[in-house]
Amino acid sequence: MLRVFDFLFSFFGLLFGFPLLLMIFLVGLFDTGSPLFVQVRVGRGKKPFKLVKFRTMSKDTASVASHLASSSSITKLGGFLRRTKLDELPQLWNVLLGDMSLVGPRPNLFNQDSLIKERDNLGVYNVRPGITGLAQVNEIDMSTPALLAKTDREMIDSLSVSNYFKYILATVSGKGSGDRVK
């Protein structure tokens, strides 16, 4: 049932959000010269997939988890996109393709060994990663691997249609600050 919601929301989000996506893309061309950011992440079953976001950091920023990146790497447009969570909009494409869900554990990088171990132990990779979830609305990020994995498992175990909409509404209304940057 949730996959049906994922498909419908991502399809109509991309369709009706296209003017906004195009505008951010065009402004991003002037901001960084490369407005889209594509990165290989760990997906369901630990299979790799290419996550798409709007670029919020300069192009020469190292490919590390956000909490390990320097805040000086964030561009002016990137700061706005992060605060408003608009940088996540291109991930609707990942949801449409079935690589992600709107609600699920945030997909991590393959070089985040301690998080992978913690999530593996709790079976977090048995579900599709998501754009938002319990950890995100409670400001728990990848800098605390054990807590994040435990929170992800809690969300998976209690995920219902009601909670699915609760996490989406909490995210859209501004709860949670996104990934921390040092």
Give a description of the structure.
Strands 1-2 form a two-stranded antiparallel sheet. The chain is built from seven helices and four strands, in the order αββααβαβααα. The N and C termini lie far apart (38 Å). Helices cover 47% and strands 11% of the residues. The protein is mainly alpha-helical and 182 residues long. α1 (2-31) runs antiparallel to α3 (91-97) and α4 (113-121) runs parallel beside α6 (145-158). The model has no long low-confidence stretch (mean pLDDT 91). It has helices at 2-31, 76-84, 91-97, 113-121, 134-137, 145-158, 161-172, and strands at residues 36-42, 48-54, 101-103, 130-132.
Short description:
With 182 residues, the protein is mainly α. It is built from seven helices and four strands.
Give the key terms.
182 residues, mainly alpha, two-stranded antiparallel ribbon, two-stranded parallel sheet, 4 strands, globular
- The total beta strand count reads 4
Strands of the widest sheet, in order across it, are 1-2
Number of helices: 7
Characterize the overall form: globular
The helix content is: 40-55%
Structural class: mainly alpha
Strand content: 5-15%
